[in-house]
Amino acid sequence: MFPNDLCCYWLLISLCFVFDVEHQDGDLEDFKRDAAALAEENNALKIKLKEAESCAELSEPTTDPEHSGRDLRAEIRKLKKAYKALSSQKESEVSALLAEKDFVWNQYKTMEKDYETLLKKKKMEAAQATEAAEKLQQKVEELQLQVVAQKKDDDVGRLQAEANDAKKKMLVLEDKLQKMHSLVSEKDDEIQKLKSGHLQASQKRKKDISGTHRRSRSEGPSVRGKSKGIPRRQMAEEDQPETSQKRQCASSLSSGLALRRCSSRMTHLKPASSSSSPAPQQVLFHSSFKVPKLKAPAPPPPPPS
Known about the structure:
Blueprint: H1 3-21, H2 25-59, H3 65-219, H4 221-229, H5 232-268
Helix pairs in contact: 1-2, 2-3, 3-5
């Protein structure tokens, strides 16, 4: 075996080992097939060389040594040329395969770097999108809280306004109630005055009647005859002031009782709550109420002459 053959053979084996280590399955199979074909061709050439040498040795005693030597050298030169051509072809194929492997490996590294860069970019975009979504959710929650707080403030303001209106109405009703109480107290004072005047008048009347009875008893039958001669109309006129005073007292008493009842009803009525509508105002007198006309008291009769 020639030294060049050994170098090529070990070069092919080392290349096969390198390809096997790098786990390039597709290219490795092709390279193995090419290496096996190259080894088979080398073996075939070796066999041919051996056959040629054996033939030369056998033909040396019977043939011309010079002629056989020339033929053998020519055959060897042909075989060497064929081997060189085949080895150069296989070397070019191996170099092409190595260049293709390097190119593919570089492309793979470039794609891996691009993929890692794209993956980092996508992760950053996803993190930014998540952060933006969280901020948006936080803003939405803050806006919802602000809306709820604003609604509560509006409700509180509305309730305060209603409470103020209710307080104002209560103050107005209390003023009216105080006025009615003062009016009722005035009427009570008038009623008391009328009662005291009525008592004084009745006492005076009783005194006058008792005095007239005493005088009539002391004067005798002459005065009785004169009293009998007094017409009934004059007696009716004398009784008229007393009846008019009684009617006036009764009417004032009835009006005073009505005012007391109204005042007691107003005191029992309580104002409604601040949230509800105000209670309707109690009317003291209806529109159809008319003040009764009292007859003017007749002048007292002239004293008897």
